[in-house]
Amino acid sequence: MSEVKPIELIWGIAKIARVIGRTDRQTYHLLTSGNLPAKQLGNRWVAERGKLIAFFLEDAE
Questions:
Q1: Around Cβ 13, how many Cβ atoms within 10 Å?
Q2: What is the model's pTM?
């Protein structure tokens, strides 16, 4: 049986911004324009760390 890895969620624009190396304002624009793999739940944004990293690695190749 394969081991299930836990999902690491990142909550909030400021924390997402730190992970991707952008300002809060830049990150807000990327989120609201649909350019980042994240979802808005109520008034907060949430993203999976693995998907964010994969998203940027995909662009680098």
A1: 22
A2: 0.82
4-47 confidence digits (pLDDT tens) = 778 899 999 999 999 999 999 999 999 999 999 999 999 999 99
Q: Where are the domains of the chain?
A: 9-60
Which run of H or of E encompasses 60?
helix 49-60
39 Cβ contact list (under 8 Å, min separation 6): 45, 46, 47
Rounded to a whole number of angstroms, the distance between the first and last alpha carbons of the chain is 32
Q: At a CB cut-off of 8 Å and minimum separation 6, what does 6 contact?
A: none
The edge-to-edge listing of strands for the beta sheet with 9-11 is: 9-11, 44-48, 38-41
